[in-house]
Write a structure and sequence with these properties.
Elements lengths: L1 H30 L6 H4 L2 E2 L5 E2 L15 E6 L9 E7 L1 E7 L2 E6 L13 E7 L6 E8 L7 E8 L1 H11 L1 H23 L1 H7 L3 H19 L1 H6 L2 H14 L1 H11 L6 H22 L5 H29 L4 H27 L7 H51 L6 H15 L4 H12 L10 H4 L7 H8 L1 H9 L7 H8 L20 H15 L11 H11 L6 H12 L21
Antiparallel strand pairs: 1-9, 2-3, 3-8, 4-7, 4-9, 5-6, 5-8
Helix pairs in contact: 4-6, 4-13, 6-8, 6-9, 6-13, 8-11, 9-10, 9-11, 10-11, 11-12, 12-13, 14-15, 14-20, 14-22, 15-19, 18-19, 19-20
């Protein structure tokens, strides 16, 4: 109980520390609100004011498909040390300043990677004294509009800093998803036993998370900036989309108990065909990954549909745990909702591959699975603990029978002493776990008698001094037998100390009072009662009232007074009472039902 209170106190203190830190962060953020937009103020949005070749005002964020040439008057703007900064999406362009070309972005894409580079951020320094800027924009795909976003005039470094800040959340999301995926893969590779016991394919789930996380990096464009190869990042993203349906379905197959499902084999074949088809058509210039991504998106939706079928079938067959079913159901709803939202955004809102909601869905799925695995692990530990307790109890009782079989005249003594010990411990206020433990210790308190010659144990007459000394060694021998059982160290303690006396005149070490271990004090009373109130080789059992009278007399000398008081309370309540001589001797349990 003390240990539990300490843990609770430590937990509360740690929560207070975390709250204090979060409070400081909140106050700091709140106090700095007035300066929060300092960086944004330095970014000069120049989307308005552009004029096309016909002299008409145009919105660069809403252009018609095809080529465009637009001009912006910057004669009245402060451009010294500044750059024109923007994000381009599958668009080649040229930038002129006062009729002089200052940038020509038309990257050469390897044939295998298609005809587009994807997305990239640009910062083009503006020459001093420039009075206007001209942009020649040509989309990579003729049927799409030129893609220009985040168009500003700013310090190049400050602009890129703002880019990183804006994309920090998405970058963090993707990083967390990838880290979670790697951890699941490691758990799958190194924990085959855990995978078999839970029935969950951690490797497939981990690979799915890694793919989703990597695809999410496309939102941030940080990889494009760091590598300078947005074309490679783009194609790798499309290939992840092409294959992600297989590990995702493999995961669902594992949790529904259908790892060898034909659906899974079919999905692998379809994903592989999708990959070969996309690479082949793109390489031959018959199409491009940009158009073929719809196949991958359709496969993802089909994967979710198959997953639902597997889950429903598992429910009907009762091959999935209810707790796992709830976690999977909520996770599946989260993933499907996120994927559908992102597909709609891609097709109708020009989100250009943003997987924000899909990542959120995957992270929610991961959270649900994490909660399930934690609870399942705890339940498994509890089950093993219960099985171990039952096994230990059964072994202890079997061992006690072996002990009593050697001492013919005291058969059942160990079982009865264990029962008395448990009853007294419970009466003294010990918790259920301790009561059960003391019961098992009582079962084995006389284990050392195995090392005593049978002729001495079963001698019908009075023992000689040498024989009595031999009998007394059973406490030391019992301790020697049980001392290496680290799971319950008190087993050895009970065997060693149950013949110590409260006045210090016991054996083997002459301990007194509180120096005697608690379990030893309790077993001493239980052992003394059963020794007097059972048949021995040299006498019949004493009368119940006489036994109780003797125990009262030796309280404070031979026996611990507190333990005796608890024993007497049990007698007063009738839980320990005189046995009817006519009752069958086969009933060793004297506790009332």
């Amino acid at each position: 109980m003390i240990r539990r209170n300490e843990l609770v106190r430590l937990g509360i203190e740690q929560v207070i520390c975390v709250i204090a830190i979060l409070l400081l962060v909140f106050l700091s953020v709140d106090a700095g609100k007035d300066k929060a937009d300092t960086d944004n103020a330095a970014l000069m949005d120049i989307n308005e004011g552009w004029i096309d070749e016909a002299g008409q005002a145009v919105d660069l964020y809403d252009l018609a498909p095809g080529r465009h040439s637009v001009v912006l008057d910057i004669s009245k703007l402060s451009t010294k040390g500044k750059a024109i900064c923007f994000k381009s999406i599958d668009t080649t362009f040229k930038v002129y300043a006062s009729d002089g070309m200052i940038c020509d972005y038309n990257p050469v894409i390897p044939r295998l990677l298609g005809i587009s580079y994807g997305m990239q951020y640009h910062t083009v320094p503006i020459p001093e004294g420039s009075s206007f800027l001209r942009l020649y924009l040509e989309p990579v795909f003729a049927d799409t509009p030129a893609g220009i976003r985040d168009l500003v005039i700013s310090d190049a470094g400050q602009y890129m800093t703002s880019v990183f800040k804006r994309n920090l959340f998405s970058f963090g999301q993707s990083t967390i998803t990838i880290v979670i995926g790697i951890l699941f893969v490691i758990a799958g590779v190194t924990g085959q036993i855990v995978m078999k016991s839970t029935g969950i394919d951690f490797i497939s789930f981990g690979i799915s998370c890694v793919m989703v996380g990597y695809i999410g990096f496309n939102d941030t464009l940080l990889l494009q900036i760091l590598t300078g190869r947005p074309d490679i990042i783009r194609v790798t993203e499309y290939m992840c989309l092409a294959f992600i349906s297989f590990p995702a379905l493999s995961f669902f197959s594992s949790i529904t108990g259908e790892s060898h499902s034909k659906l899974l084999s079919g999905m692998f074949a379809v994903c592989l065909f999708n990959y070969i088809l996309q690479v082949g058509l793109t390489y031959d210039r018959l199409s491009d990954y940009y158009y073929l991504v719809y196949i991958s998106q359709a496969l993802i939706l089909v994967c979710f549909a198959m997953a639902i079928v597997l889950v429903v079938r598992a429910v009907r067959r009762r091959t999935i745990k209810p707790a796992l079913l709830r976690s999977v159901a909520w996770g599946l709803v989260s993933c499907i909702s996120g994927a559908v939202i992102d597909v709609v955004r891609f097709n109708f809102l020009q989100s250009f591959g943003s997987l924000t909601f899909t990542r959120i869905g995957v992270q929610l799925f991961t959270a649900f699975m994490g909660i399930y695995l934690y609870r399942d692990h705890i339940d498994s530990l509890k089950k093993k603990q219960q099985e171990s307790a039952v096994f230990a109890s059964e072994i202890s009782e079997a061992f006690a029978k072996v002990i009593d079989m050697k001492d013919t005249y005291t058969y059942g003594h160990s079982k009865r002493v264990a029962q008395y010990t448990g009853m007294i411990a419970k009466e003294m206020g010990y918790d259920a776990e301790t009561v059960e433990k003391y019961y098992r210790i009582g079962l084995l308190h006389d284990v050392g008698k195995i090392g005593i010659p049978k002729a001495v144990l079963n001698k019908p007459g009075k023992l000689t001094d040498e024989e009595y000394d031999e009998i007394k060694t059973h406490t030391l021998k019992g301790h020697e037998v049980l001392k290496d059982i680290s799971a319950v160290p008190e087993l050895a303690v009970g065997a060693l100390s149950h013949h110590e006396r409260h006045d210090g005149k016991g054996y083997p070490y002459g301990l007194a009072g509180d120096d005697i271990p608690p379990v030893g004090r309790i077993i001493a009373v239980a052992d003394a009662f059963d020794a007097m109130y059972s048949d021995r080789q040299y006498r019949k059992r004493m009368e119940f009232d006489k036994v109780i009278s003797i125990i009262k007399e030796v309280s404070g000398t031979q026996l611990n007074p507190e333990v005796v008081e608890a024993f007497l309370r049990l007698v007063a309540k009738g839980e320990i009472k005189a046995i009817d001589v006519k009752e069958t001797e086969q009933n060793d349990n004297i506790m009332e039902e």
